[in-house]
Amino acid sequence: MRQGKLIQIFTLSATVMALAGCGTITPSPLTQDELNQTNRTDKSMASSAVEPIDGPLTLDEAMARALKYNLDRRTRLMEEALSMNQLEMAEFDALPKLVAQAGYTARDKERATYSSQYTPNQVVSSFQTSSYSSERNHGTADLGLTWSLLDASVGYYGGKQQAERVLIAAEKRRKAMHVLMQDVRTAYWRAASAQQLRSQVQQTIANAESALADSRKVEAERVRNPMDALRYQRQLLENLRLLESIEQELASAQVDLAALVNAPLGQPITIAETSLALSEDSMLTLPIQRLEDFALENNADLREQHYNSRIARQEVQKTMARMFPNLNFNYGFKYDADQYLVHNNWNEAGLQLSFNLFNILTAPTQTKLAEAGVKLADQRRVASQMAVITQLHLARLQLINARKQFLRADSVYETDVRIASLVRSRANAQAQSKLDEVANDTAAILSLLRRYQALAQVNVAENRLIANLGLEPRLGSTDALKLKELTQQISMNNRQPWAPLLSGAEKP
């Protein structure tokens, strides 16, 4: 009786505690100390193992730093690693299950039963005896092995699907790398133009402000016609507005580049002196059919759709596997501490065949749904193929046009530089007004900016075409390679970016 009372008290206490716990859960917002600690930790993690920029930054090193240290790229690599781990876990789904259990059973009263003698066709009105054959308190343990044919079949196809998802993660990483390299090229040339133009823009703004002050002084003294002075100031103000817009446009270039290469924000980055010249255009002479075939073989988006189609077909097979009867086998070692048992430990085996009869009704619908998924995946692949071919033609045309625009911008810049030099010489000889000097200096600055922008557009168009063709640097592990080694590999690739295409290689 005492033990029964203890069991009742324990059960009642556990129930009260559970109900009390359910009623006291309240939202717990982050404290300021927790936020500060987390922010400090995250900031430390973001900059950990990042080599400082010691000298002028080249385009090759900027791309290497982005591939090695960029935070978004690190996320992509972790996603790919997670897919690999999920594949390893999926491989265990087809294995048998080995389960170990242990328990303890307690009763406040014995499990007693009445018994009577059995007599055919006769109703017994009273029980003969009462007895019990188990202890009130006893422990149990068992170790069981279970294997299901249905679970093994579904796990097999699920593992194959997860293997395709690993390949999809790799294609997404390739696509993210192309986008990252394109962004680095754009930000690098913006930063280069900002570095080149900063002093010229500031000097020209100072000259324009000085000329504007002189003009207002002349206007106040009424030495010249007020209308002429106002027109003169109006032109100076237009030039100032143009110069200030250029300065504002270039102001964020360093921040964008620093974010891409994971450099400290606010720390100035010196851009290396780089030749403003076009790369070779041998790939533009290739037949467009050759480019289409290469893109259809290697484009990351299209390859991803191929893998999705394979996943959809494996889903049909997995659906069919679920409709078959399930064969379940189990084998276990049992133990029970009950002293009334003759054998306290024994082995137990079983074989069970089961079938869900409703599968007969739902099989057509399930099959139809899975086949519809295959058709949808195939349609997406066809649409992606047409999109890849369209993007290829557009990227090729954009590269041709960008190269023409750069050559034109280069010619305009050379002409504006010569004009600005002549006007500056005449202004020094007091044969030309400050307005003309400021206007021509502004035009020369704008021409140089457009020259950099045109070269950046050439790089962007090249990178877009490279991404569409599925070309990328042949690199080792960015984690294993040192920054210097990675920079050298990217430099070699940038000198011959079209080598796999020109050599007839099928896969970069």
UniProtKB/TrEMBL annotation:
Gene3D superfamilies linked = Outer membrane efflux proteins (OEP) (1.20.1600.10)
Composition-biased stretches, type Polar residues, lie in 27-47
Locate the coiled-coil region(s) and give their ranges.
Answer: none
Where are the annotated segments for Disordered?
27-50
Where is the signal peptide, in residue numbers? 1-20
- Source organism, top-level taxon: Bacteria
Its name, as the record gives it, is: TolC family protein
PROSITE patterns in the record? PROKAR_LIPOPROTEIN
**UniProt keywords, alphabetically:** Signal
